[in-house]
Amino acid sequence: MKFIRPFLGCTLIMFVGLCFFVTSAAAQKKDAKERAEAAKTAGDATKVLNELMTIPAKSIPQSLLKKAKAIAVFPGVIKAAFIVGGRGGKGLISRRVKGGWSAPALFKLGGGSVGFQIGGSSTDVVMLFMTDDSLKNLLEDRFEIGGEAAAAAGPVGRTVRATTDAQLQAEILSYSRSKGVFAGVSISGAVISPDNDANQILYSLDATELLTGENKVAFNSIPAETAGFHKAITRHAKTVR
Q1: Would you say residue 214 lies in a domain?
Q2: DSSP H helical segments within 53-180, as ranges?
Q3: Angle, helix 224-236 to helix 4-52, in steps of 10 degrees
Q4: Which tens digit of pLDDT belongs to each residue from 81-120?
Q5: How many separate domains does the chain show?
Q6: Which of 15, 90, 92, 199 is the most exposed place for a label (fewest CB within 10 A)?
Q7: Phi, psi for residue 169 in degrees, rounded to 5
Q8: For a pLDDT cut of 70, what percent of the chain falls above it?
Q9: Buried b (16+ CB within 10 A) or exposed e, 152-181
Q10: CA-CA distances (angstroms) from residue 213 to 98, 99, 234?
């Protein structure tokens, strides 16, 4: 009997150790997967933004970029994302902070209803959040565009001379690119929600912490996965002086 107890004790220790090892390995695997997905999303979003801004006459007006409180880019959103129950796309949102732009937070884009003006199997979506209130809406677990914040298709070109009243009053301006064609597009009814699993892995912060208050992540400490997107935002949407 006296030999059984030490044996059981050793067995229990080995079992606990094995459970810890398995749990740790699973966590590391999830961490690596989230980082890889974030890097791909950020890389695609950076490419979208750079390509859209190469032709000023067909891009987002600089005057709007300079006034935006936050900018979102969702690359390669599939059409099924805009159908109830469909799988959404992922993207990044960066807000204007003192001296530049914040570390990009990861978000998801999906559909709350049917009827969006988006066609094609894959569409790049860009949004400008023009007011503080529209930025605050992003802090909700589930924010439906057009519900609490007025949204409109954004103007395209060097200037905003042809801007409509709806665009002037909109809190969110939205754009899309499909099959090489870039234009303002209405996405009222689309739903945005934070991807905090990815945000916690990249920054040990959630979307609310990244998009409110003082800048939480120093510009030179932004992780490699999202640093390229941050540089692109900084280059194309310079801080108003």
Answers
A1: yes
A2: 62-67, 132-137, 165-169
A3: 20
A4: 455 444 468 999 999 999 899 999 999 998 754 444 455 5
A5: 1
A6: 15
A7: -90, -10
A8: 73
A9: bbbbbeeebeebeeebeebbbbbbbbbeee
A10: 11, 14, 19
Q: Is residue 188 in a domain? A: yes
Strand, helix or coil for residue 185: coil
pTM of the model: 0.80
Rounded to an integer, what distance in angstroms lies between the CA atom of residue 80 and that of residue 110? 9
Full domain range(s) for residue 157: 52-236
CA distance 172 to 187: 10
* The two three-digit tokens of residue 10, written as one number: 């050793």
Residue 17 lies in a domain: no
Q: For residue 39, is it within any domain? A: no
First to last CA, the chain: 81
User: 83 versus 62: which is more confidently predicted?
Assistant: 62
Q: Token pair of 11, please?
A: 């067995």
- 133-137, 164-168, 199-203: range with highest mean pLDDT: 199-203
